[in-house]
Amino acid sequence: MERPLAIRARGITKTFGDVIALDGIDLDMAEGRIHGLVGPNGAGKTTLLGLLLGLAAPDEGTLEILGSPVGRTLETPDGVTGFVDGPGLYPSLSAEQNLAALAALRGRDADMSSVADVLAQVGLSDVAGDRVRGFSLGMRQRLGLAAALLAKPRLLVLDEPANGLDPAGKKHVHRVLNRLADEGATVVLSSHRMDDVEALCTEVTIVAAGRVVFTGPRTKLSAETGELDYRLRTSDPGAARELATETAGVRVVEESEDVARDDAELLVVRASVPALDTLVAGLARAGIAVRELAPVTSPLEAAFLALTDQESAR
Ligand SMILES: Nc1ncnc2c1ncn2[C@@H]1O[C@H](COP(=O)(O)OP(=O)(O)OP(=O)(O)O)[C@@H](O)[C@H]1O
């Protein structure tokens, strides 16, 4: 059964003076999924997220959020929360005072057990009583997420949520977002980190110059990618190079910008998946062990570069 849509956008346009930030955006985002919004600098991601949060209204087009049409007034249905350009926090208050104050602003009494719970979820229990003034960027991001969780979101909108996060912080954030989606909430996040998007998002939208150039399941994007460069490390680099050169559809890339040049053991090969399969089977037959085989740039990054280049070349 098709999932209901959390977001349905048709022909959304937003301009700032002469700048067309969004140029006819059509978008369907299903409930209960984590959607990644990616695109080059200035593509329109923050503008689009701002519309979802009711921070601005579209100039043209129709937007439905959680089944409700959003008009020209700056309002969004209940259950929509998140932040763009970093969370708004009070530096002179502690983490827990910030959350209590935000709960009060939303017209709810501060329930300190909920405050403690969301702080634990984002891994900030130890600094609950510390002033936010002394928080790092990553801690502020996590506190912003805690504030959003307190509102029990049905749609959570986050601009670059992994900004400034260390690996432990990232783990907390990923766990929290996955749990939210498992519980049926929809998460829409923008990121310049393709590895984060690959780790988190089942759905991806790529925007370039205010237009959608791809939207759909991330796996579909990977499948559509043709040839990729792969790092190949084997037990016999010389013999592997020879075999790669002889295998139809496989090319040895001599100078790869993305791989350290002083690593003589590592081979970079360019191939489609079927040609790569032939090479790997050939290596096995020749008794050459494969110790590492991975794309140099991820399928998402490759598609991103190809699709956004295409767009700017139009
Ligand atoms: N308030 C504003 N006033 C004028 N121009 C704006 C405003 N907000 C956005 N823009 C312009 O709209 C375009 C889209 O900007 P936006 O911030 O949405 O892009 P982005 O994809 O989030 O970029 P980045 O990855 O750099 O954050 C840019 O050309 C930007 O300069």
From TrEMBL:
Record keyword tRNA processing present: no
One Pfam family here: ABC_tran
Keyword annotations: ATP-binding, Nucleotide-binding, Transport
Membrane-spanning residues: none
Keyword Ribosomal protein recorded: no
SMART domains attached to this UniProt entry: AAA
Superkingdom, natural source: Bacteria
GO molecular function: ATP binding; ATP hydrolysis activity
Domain ABC transporter as annotated: residue spans: 7-234
InterPro entries with a match to the protein in the record: AAA+_ATPase, ABC_transporter-like_ATP-bd, ABC_transporter-like_CS, P-loop_NTPase
Family: Belongs to the ABC transporter superfamily.
UniProt name for this protein: ABC transporter ATP-binding protein
